[in-house]
Amino acid sequence: MDNPVASPKRSSAAGGWGALKSCGRHLLGSRAPLSGARAMLKANQPDGFDCPGCAWGDPEHGSSFEFCENGVKAVSWEATDKRTPPSFFARHTVTELRGWTDHALEGEGRLTQPMRYDAGLDRYIAVPWDEAFAEIGATLRGLAHPDQAEFYTSGRASNEAAYLYQLFARLYGTNNFPDCSNMCHEASGIALTQAIGIGKGTVSLEDFEKADAVFVVGQNPGTNHPRMLGDLRRAAQRGARVVVLNPVRERGLERFADPQNTVEMLRGASQPVASHYLQPRLGGDMAAFRGMAKAIFARDDAEIAAGRPSLLDRAFLAKHTDGLAAYRAAVDATGWEAILDQSGLTRDEIEAMAEVYLGADKVIATWAMGVTQHKHSVPTIREIANVLFLRGHVGRPGAGLCPVRGHSNVQGDRTVGINEKPPAALLDALEQEFGFTAPRQHGHNVLAAIRAMCGGSAKAFIGLGGNFARATPDSALVAKALAGCELTVHIATKLNHSHLVPGRIAYILPCLGRTEIDRNSAGKVQIVTVEDSMSMVHGSGGINKPASPHLRSEVGIIAGIAAATVGSDKVDWAALADDHDRIRELIGRTIPGFTGYNTRVRRPRGFLLRNLAAERVFETETGKATFSDDSLPEATEHQQAKRTDDTFVLQTFRSHDQYNTTIYGLDDRYRGVYGERRVLFAHPDDLAAIRDRLGERVNIRGSHDDGVAREAEDFRLVPFDMPRGSLAGYYPELNILVPLSTFGAQSDTPTSKSVLVTLHAR
Ligand SMILES: Nc1nc2c(c(=O)[nH]1)N[C@H]1C(S)=C(S)[C@@H](COP(=O)(O)OP(=O)(O)OC[C@H]3O[C@@H](n4cnc5c(=O)[nH]c(N)nc54)[C@H](O)[C@@H]3O)O[C@H]1N2
Ligand SMILES: Nc1nc2c(c(=O)[nH]1)N[C@H]1C(S)=C(S)[C@@H](COP(=O)(O)OP(=O)(O)OC[C@H]3O[C@@H](n4cnc5c(=O)[nH]c(N)nc54)[C@H](O)[C@@H]3O)O[C@H]1N2
Ligand SMILES: [Mo]
Question: Looking at ligand 2, which atom is closest to the CA of residue 468?
């Protein structure tokens, strides 16, 4: 095949004019060009709102707004003037709407009024707020036990909303907090807590200006964190090495034209980003880093044998780390054969990575879903940390560990208490402040919540944003579980499929989005706060007129439900909802790091939550940065698939025109796909063989051995530059193939990047 890759304009860079054109289209397509454009100018500015797009940090000296194509889509999608009013629901039954695509449902625009499901009519009907709160409260109070309710959070919720939400659920009596992060960066939080004593990254945006080498692992920033690409590109221009590990050749990581750079735009120029682009097999990153460690140790041994100084940071290792000897033994015990087979890389490639590492004074490693959504994600992230420890790349300028978060406030939500396994100190502080006995028993994460709903032991589902039925694995099963509930409540901006599997009593409660002005009863504008990937906490205030006069803020809705459920003796919910400063005062008194919250958050860039690991204070059991000594997985999915002729490993990733389950459009420009989403990317040789056997379009069948039949129908094969034996396609359409039965060890994260499948004729 002459052109092994899908894109017709493969040589063109990411970003650039294509991005600008796409933005114009999205602003126009949202039918809100003016408010959308005005809103865009205020995104991530000191006096504007936090972009609901991603969690990448904001620059200190960003005088002009940081342009980001996908930020424009996120903002214009919310700032649309299309509406989904009660008359829409009068025209369409829920059964009918279930046949619509995600794109079509959200494309109807913003929800405008609280709606209650009427089973007789099979329609949602408008209902006054107070009635909604009263019935939700009464139903929750009527459950046999508070642990029968699940309180889901999607990571767009503000600190203020999340804090009230966890306070309410704990006063009610449960720690059931399934959270989108359970499907996302859970493994990062766990691995980093074990390794460095805190479940967050250690780098700031400024560190990217100083690094000599950045390893970008399992991440597609061109689509999902476009502003990060600017930082990577500037690093590359300074001469820093950018080493990409990604099975798929992602265009944004190869070349990038900065839409913010006028000269570059006029000249049609673009800059290379990656100095090294390595394409491991799915799930092969632990082996790749283990191989690097082997090469590093070998080089170091040779130096020492030759009487030269060690290449490792011996002072850091001796003073600040624990477990080096056991790690060295584990590395020595790992053979090259397993490393090469699992990683799919050559020894030369791995040694080249080690050379980059050894040649750099300051190294950053970043990662996202390509690393976290496997069975062995926790050991993989520990291995990345191990390698960084060897030359002391934690806790000094220009170096460190950087999990790149997903939702714009997913990190903040966890910081302010969304945690199904709350630390005792948090519960103690809440008990002391509010005078109640907090539940101590650990609650449910996403998988446990699904199991409880399927088994009938959970009977109520409250969703603070998100699209639980589509974001989770085994979509059909989860939809059934939601529909089996006594109560489902969704706090949302737009209609989605989770709303269309109503429980016996079911509500959709429409809220203000982040771009909209939130005024209290005295007319005073309220701000909320969020925390980015670099642990910067800053304010966010909307500028657009609310989509409907009936909308309430998330904080107001949670306060309404809370007052109707647990009463207002211990907490004056109405007063808190009316003045967010009061919520921040409570956060300041109960969550470490937030004293003086109201003052500090009003400074232009907000404030940094102190991260002790970044200062080389490691709050692990031993007080030291801790090496792990795991062996490689016995067999990765690739190795399992190889044992049979026709099994492939499928990863489910995002197109350029989507935000998780929100589908903005049907194009995936950087990968050369237009107007469709039912595509399946494959290596050209695999594709040719499949096509000969089955034709151009195929059905995909799950082949996990758990007794559940799973099939996704009618996908067009698209050739792509990726390893043989791997396939890739879009989430959420393919979630029907992601099994509930496989998940990360320790993290419980669904293995969305290593699904075993076979292909079949249509
Ligand atoms: N525009 C936009 N922005 C977003 C989102 C969005 O949907 N749209 N989602 C937000 C959220 S919640 C999140 S979590 C982030 C997600 O950001 P990403 O993690 O970038 O998201 P994915 O599209 O899942 O991309 C995974 C990348 O990892 C690669 N990969 C897959 N498996 C492996 C593997 O085994 N090893 C390696 N080395 N690479 C692998 C894939 O080829 C792909 O490039 O983005 C956030 N930002
Ligand atoms: N197969 C597969 N599955 C995955 C993943 C994958 O890579 N592959 N990724 C996983 C990841 S990383 C994540 S984070 C999850 C995401 O899971 P979720 O966070 O549950 O899903 P989203 O698609 O982000 O939620 C979209 C909905 O949020 C609502 N919404 C939007 N803005 C607001 C707002 O301001 N307030 C409120 N209250 N609601 C709002 C809208 O109604 C919209 O329909 O999915 C996970 N699922
Ligand atoms: Mo995420």
Answer: 20
Show which of 78, 98, 122 is a domain's final residue: 78
| 678 shares a domain with 563 | no
259 and 174 housed in the same domain:
no
**Residues near 482 by Cβ (< 8 Å), separated by ≥ 6?**
453, 461, 468, 469, 488, 498, 501, 502, 503
Percent of the chain with pLDDT strictly greater than 90? 84
Q: Please tell me whether the peptide bond between 732 and the residue prior to it is cis, using omega within 30 degrees of 0.
A: yes
| pLDDT-based confidence at residue 71 (cuts at 50, 70, 90) | confident
**What distance in angstroms lies between residue 78's CA and the mean position of ligand 2's atoms?**
14
Residues 55 and 409 sit within 8 Å (Cβ to Cβ): yes
Considering the domain boundaries, does residue 610 fall inside one? Answer: no
Q: Is 106 in the same domain as 180?
A: yes
* Chain segment 660-707, per-residue pLDDT in tens: 999 999 999 999 999 999 999 999 999 999 999 999 999 999 998 899
Together in a domain, 107 and 88: yes
State yes or no: pLDDT of 4 exceeds 80. Answer: no
> pTM, whole model, 2 decimals?
0.94
Interval between CA 471 and ligand 3 midpoint (Å): 10
661 and 673 share one domain: yes
Domain boundary among 372, 404, 436: 404
- Are residues 432 and 460 both part of a single domain? yes
Range of the domain at 33: 14-78
Which two three-digit tokens encode residue 132? 């909604």
Q: What is the mean pLDDT of the chain?
A: 92
pLDDT at 708: 93
The response to whether residue 493 sits with its C-beta less than 6 Å from ligand 2 reads: yes
**Centroid of ligand 1 to alpha carbon of 654 (angstroms):** 6
User: Using an 8 Å Cβ cutoff, are 398 and 207 in contact?
Assistant: yes
Does one domain contain both 49 and 149? Answer: no
Q: CA 470, 475, 478: angle at the middle one, nearest 5?
A: 100
Closest residue by Cα to atom 7, ligand 2, is: 653
